[in-house]
Amino acid sequence: MDTESSNTISQTLETEIINGKLLPGSLLQQEELAERFGVSRQPIRAALDILSAKGLAEKRPNRTVEVGGLHLGAAEETLAVRKLLEPEALLGSIDQLTPADLLIAKQAQERFEIETDSDRLAQHDTDFHLALYAKCGNRVLLDLIVSLRRLNRRAYLGQPLGSTTRELCIHAHWQLLDAVSQQDSDRAISLLQEHFDHVKERDK
């Protein structure tokens, strides 16, 4: 079996799932995918297994495969866990951040403000926050945060350029960056918690 082909196909489909081109519940037909990618069904099956292992696809009882997706309860649970982990990372990092770290956050924020692609928008948002959490000294914590943020990338479809949702997020980011720049831990944590509360309210 061509492992490289399977990995390439799974990465392509993963990107399409994350950026909303393939929506939850969409069927992933082996025959159609084999024709699209110009391969046999074997690497397609392997690619779908990779997506299933990542929780991005689900095998149905009739052996068909569909795009997976977080139901509302799971999305809220994911956000609740992030609300516990991200303030912890910020608190452990804030006193160790350098001007270079803050510049990275600022640059990510500037890219976030003008981005039109939802997948890249999600990445800029993650880059912004990770720049602020970078010095927490806990690699496992950072990896968990990245994984949890990745599960909710579809939410960025609701933040087109110029939207109220995007503008509110931009305002929250600049407030947070200001508090972090002043090493005001209490204010920074409070702003981050408020940010999560607004996201939860928005996604209801």
UniProtKB/TrEMBL annotation:
Plastid keyword on record: no
UniProt-listed Pfam families: FCD, GntR
InterPro entries with a match to the protein in the record: GntR_C, TF_FadR/GntR_C, Tscrpt_reg_HTH_GntR, WH-like_DNA-bd_sf, WH_DNA-bd_sf
Gene3D superfamilies for this protein: GntR ligand-binding domain-like, Winged helix-like DNA-binding domain superfamily/Winged helix DNA-binding domain
Keywords carried by this UniProt record: DNA-binding, Transcription, Transcription regulation
GO MF term list: DNA binding; DNA-binding transcription factor activity
Domain of life (superkingdom): Bacteria
Domain HTH gntR-type: 3-70
Name this protein carries in UniProt: DNA-binding transcriptional regulator, GntR family
Top-level taxonomy: Bacteria, Pseudomonadati, Pseudomonadota, Alphaproteobacteria, Hyphomicrobiales
